[in-house]
């Protein structure tokens, strides 16, 4: 399935070294994002290795430490799941006051089919000792600590209950093709419902441990810091917030009177999207949008027909609710690193 793109836009570049680019989300017309437009989020330069020499090791608190080749992994029972991956910093540019970091707009996210092996399948082969609390994942992605110049691998962990969920998979295909190199070839961890930092690319090693992992990207980065000058009340970034985005019309677009289709997407890290409401008067009144279908791990497309005959300037808002009763707030939860923005989405249009 390919994207139908208006005006043939490209991904917006935030940086080239490392490479960070966002999906032209307002112009993606299909439900699945092609690899060509999938967002790129990197902390370091791309790693270098070959498929033939790629092995995945599993060690730590297991009964039998094992080493798996890609051929071994591909022989195991597979599953395909539709997942939206969202950078934790998606929409960071919308925070007020402004925060440091890549100024993502609405395109730090993409959506498609991932095929691979349940991590649980491999862990059942190695065995899981009863004292295990966390599963640690290490990537080939490597840089240096800014303050010490010491090697810094991209490593994170999952609590055991999330790691052994049947839909936490080690993926080797995206949209029925091998995962592109820039998106984690040949093996990527996919963690549905969590922000994208958990879905580690270029997976190299898995270790089972009996205590919490203290790596940089676990305890320093990808943490909510609610205060400007101290780390009090901080807590880790994990499950995606309920969220929505208006795709069309775009902000500051000039439109004609008559029937106007307002379209967009909504997603959540808990349950599924149960309702999307649209306001065409800046939040005074709300009406329900039409949802396409329920998605547990993906985004749901929605639409609303707006009939407007009076010229002027209008503020359009979208507000999603999920099956757990979580509702997009009017204002975001401000935090120092700019994670998890999910305030009601808004665009301004002019009717002539």
Automatic annotation (TrEMBL):
Print the keywords alphabetically.
Metal-binding, Molybdenum, Oxidoreductase
GO annotation (BP), single: sulfur compound metabolic process
Do you know which InterPro entries this protein is assigned to?
Answer: Ig_E-set, MoCF_OxRdtse_dimer, Mopterin_OxRdtase_euk, OxRdtase_Mopterin-bd_dom, OxRdtase_Mopterin-bd_sf
CDD domains, sorted? SO_family_Moco_dimer
Domain Moybdenum cofactor oxidoreductase dimerisation, by residue range, is 240-350
Where the record annotates domain Oxidoreductase molybdopterin-binding, the positions are 43-216
| Molecular function GO terms recorded | heme binding; molybdenum ion binding; molybdopterin cofactor binding; sulfite oxidase activity
Which cofactor names does the annotation list? Answer: Mo-molybdopterin
Q: Where is this region: Disordered?
A: 1-20
The reply to whether Manganese figures as a keyword in the UniProt entry is: no
Write the protein's name. Possible sulfite oxidase
Please give the organism: Halalkalibacter akibai (strain ATCC 43226 / DSM 21942 / CIP 109018 / JCM 9157 / 1139) (Bacillus akibai)
